[in-house]
Automatic annotation (TrEMBL):
Signal peptide feature range: none
Keyword tags: Cell membrane, Membrane, Transmembrane, Transmembrane helix
Domain of life: Bacteria
Organism: Martelella mediterranea DSM 17316
Name of the protein in question: RDD family protein
Coiled-coil residues: none
Keyword Membrane (UniProt): yes
Transmembrane residue ranges: 33-58, 64-84, 105-132
Gene Ontology CC terms, in alphabetical order: plasma membrane
Length: 155
Protein backbone atom coordinates (compact mmCIF):
# COMPACT_ATOMS: atom_id res chain seq x y z
CA UNK A 1 0.00 0.00 0.00
CA UNK A 2 2.75 2.37 0.95
CA UNK A 3 4.53 3.85 -2.05
CA UNK A 4 1.86 3.30 -4.70
CA UNK A 5 -0.80 5.04 -2.62
CA UNK A 6 1.44 8.07 -2.19
CA UNK A 7 2.25 8.33 -5.90
CA UNK A 8 -1.08 9.30 -7.41
CA UNK A 9 -1.66 10.61 -10.88
CA UNK A 10 -4.76 12.23 -12.22
CA UNK A 11 -5.84 13.23 -15.67
CA UNK A 12 -5.76 16.96 -16.32
CA UNK A 13 -9.18 18.54 -16.67
CA UNK A 14 -8.20 20.78 -19.61
CA UNK A 15 -9.44 19.82 -23.06
CA UNK A 16 -5.89 20.37 -24.38
CA UNK A 17 -4.94 17.11 -22.73
CA UNK A 18 -7.27 15.21 -25.06
CA UNK A 19 -7.04 17.11 -28.34
CA UNK A 20 -5.46 15.01 -31.06
CA UNK A 21 -5.23 11.93 -28.83
CA UNK A 22 -7.04 9.55 -31.21
CA UNK A 23 -4.85 10.27 -34.22
CA UNK A 24 -1.73 10.08 -32.05
CA UNK A 25 -2.90 6.74 -30.65
CA UNK A 26 -3.26 5.32 -34.16
CA UNK A 27 0.28 6.43 -35.05
CA UNK A 28 1.60 5.07 -31.74
CA UNK A 29 -0.12 1.75 -32.48
CA UNK A 30 1.61 1.50 -35.86
CA UNK A 31 4.97 2.43 -34.33
CA UNK A 32 4.60 -0.09 -31.49
CA UNK A 33 3.61 -2.97 -33.73
CA UNK A 34 6.53 -2.35 -36.08
CA UNK A 35 8.85 -2.48 -33.05
CA UNK A 36 7.16 -5.67 -31.83
CA UNK A 37 7.60 -7.25 -35.27
CA UNK A 38 11.29 -6.35 -35.16
CA UNK A 39 11.62 -7.78 -31.62
CA UNK A 40 9.81 -10.96 -32.71
CA UNK A 41 12.72 -11.96 -35.00
CA UNK A 42 15.39 -12.34 -32.27
CA UNK A 43 12.76 -13.93 -30.01
CA UNK A 44 12.08 -16.54 -32.72
CA UNK A 45 15.79 -17.24 -33.09
CA UNK A 46 16.17 -17.55 -29.32
CA UNK A 47 13.17 -19.87 -29.16
CA UNK A 48 14.72 -22.01 -31.89
CA UNK A 49 17.82 -22.61 -29.78
CA UNK A 50 15.76 -23.12 -26.62
CA UNK A 51 13.67 -25.62 -28.59
CA UNK A 52 16.78 -27.54 -29.59
CA UNK A 53 18.04 -27.49 -26.00
CA UNK A 54 14.71 -28.80 -24.71
CA UNK A 55 14.53 -31.48 -27.41
CA UNK A 56 11.64 -29.76 -29.14
CA UNK A 57 9.46 -29.07 -26.10
CA UNK A 58 9.61 -25.28 -26.53
CA UNK A 59 8.61 -25.34 -30.21
CA UNK A 60 4.92 -25.28 -29.26
CA UNK A 61 5.41 -21.60 -28.33
CA UNK A 62 5.99 -20.52 -31.96
CA UNK A 63 2.28 -19.96 -32.78
CA UNK A 64 1.86 -17.60 -29.82
CA UNK A 65 5.33 -16.04 -29.82
CA UNK A 66 4.16 -12.76 -31.35
CA UNK A 67 1.54 -12.42 -28.60
CA UNK A 68 4.12 -13.20 -25.91
CA UNK A 69 6.50 -10.55 -27.26
CA UNK A 70 3.66 -8.01 -27.48
CA UNK A 71 2.47 -8.81 -23.96
CA UNK A 72 5.96 -8.36 -22.51
CA UNK A 73 6.50 -5.19 -24.56
CA UNK A 74 3.28 -3.52 -23.40
CA UNK A 75 3.35 -4.95 -19.89
CA UNK A 76 6.79 -3.56 -19.13
CA UNK A 77 6.36 -0.27 -21.01
CA UNK A 78 2.83 0.70 -19.90
CA UNK A 79 3.47 -0.75 -16.47
CA UNK A 80 6.84 0.98 -16.20
CA UNK A 81 7.77 4.38 -14.88
CA UNK A 82 6.87 6.20 -18.12
CA UNK A 83 3.30 4.79 -18.09
CA UNK A 84 3.49 4.73 -21.89
CA UNK A 85 4.71 2.45 -24.63
CA UNK A 86 7.61 3.68 -26.77
CA UNK A 87 5.13 4.53 -29.54
CA UNK A 88 3.03 6.52 -27.11
CA UNK A 89 6.12 8.36 -25.87
CA UNK A 90 7.11 9.15 -29.45
CA UNK A 91 3.65 10.66 -29.99
CA UNK A 92 3.70 12.55 -26.68
CA UNK A 93 1.05 10.41 -24.96
CA UNK A 94 0.74 8.88 -21.51
CA UNK A 95 -1.84 6.53 -19.98
CA UNK A 96 -3.31 7.30 -16.57
CA UNK A 97 -5.78 5.44 -14.40
CA UNK A 98 -8.89 7.32 -13.42
CA UNK A 99 -8.57 6.21 -9.78
CA UNK A 100 -5.17 7.91 -9.52
CA UNK A 101 -3.02 4.81 -9.10
CA UNK A 102 -0.22 3.82 -11.45
CA UNK A 103 -0.79 1.31 -14.21
CA UNK A 104 0.90 -1.93 -13.24
CA UNK A 105 2.04 -4.88 -15.37
CA UNK A 106 -1.21 -6.81 -14.94
CA UNK A 107 -3.41 -3.82 -15.78
CA UNK A 108 -1.36 -3.24 -18.92
CA UNK A 109 -1.84 -6.90 -19.91
CA UNK A 110 -5.60 -6.71 -19.33
CA UNK A 111 -5.73 -3.52 -21.41
CA UNK A 112 -3.88 -5.27 -24.24
CA UNK A 113 -6.08 -8.39 -24.06
CA UNK A 114 -9.26 -6.29 -24.14
CA UNK A 115 -7.88 -4.32 -27.07
CA UNK A 116 -7.21 -7.54 -29.03
CA UNK A 117 -10.63 -8.93 -28.13
CA UNK A 118 -12.57 -5.82 -29.09
CA UNK A 119 -10.45 -5.23 -32.16
CA UNK A 120 -11.18 -8.74 -33.44
CA UNK A 121 -14.92 -8.37 -32.78
CA UNK A 122 -15.59 -4.69 -33.47
CA UNK A 123 -12.66 -3.58 -35.64
CA UNK A 124 -13.68 -0.05 -36.71
CA UNK A 125 -16.10 0.52 -33.87
CA UNK A 126 -13.47 0.72 -31.12
CA UNK A 127 -12.15 3.92 -32.69
CA UNK A 128 -15.65 5.30 -33.21
CA UNK A 129 -16.26 5.16 -29.47
CA UNK A 130 -13.43 7.66 -29.02
CA UNK A 131 -15.08 10.14 -31.36
CA UNK A 132 -18.12 10.43 -29.12
CA UNK A 133 -16.58 10.49 -25.65
CA UNK A 134 -15.43 13.64 -23.95
CA UNK A 135 -11.94 12.41 -23.09
CA UNK A 136 -11.42 10.40 -26.32
CA UNK A 137 -11.50 7.13 -24.39
CA UNK A 138 -11.90 3.83 -26.20
CA UNK A 139 -14.03 0.91 -25.02
CA UNK A 140 -11.16 -0.98 -23.40
CA UNK A 141 -10.06 2.22 -21.63
CA UNK A 142 -13.47 2.45 -19.96
CA UNK A 143 -13.31 -1.14 -18.76
CA UNK A 144 -9.97 -0.82 -16.98
CA UNK A 145 -10.53 2.77 -15.85
CA UNK A 146 -7.82 4.47 -17.90
CA UNK A 147 -7.43 7.60 -19.95
CA UNK A 148 -4.76 8.62 -22.45
CA UNK A 149 -3.55 12.21 -22.28
CA UNK A 150 -1.04 14.32 -24.11
CA UNK A 151 2.18 14.48 -22.14
CA UNK A 152 2.80 18.20 -22.57
CA UNK A 153 -0.70 19.03 -21.31
CA UNK A 154 0.00 17.26 -18.03
CA UNK A 155 2.18 20.02 -16.63
Amino acid sequence: MSLERNMTYSAPPASDAYSGVLSRRVLAFIFDYIVIAILWVPAAVLLFFVGIATLGLAFFLYPVLYFIVAALYFGFSLGGSAQASPGMRAMGLRMLRTDGLRIDFLTALVHLALFWLFNSLLTPLILLVGLFTDRKRLLHDFLIGAVVVREEARY
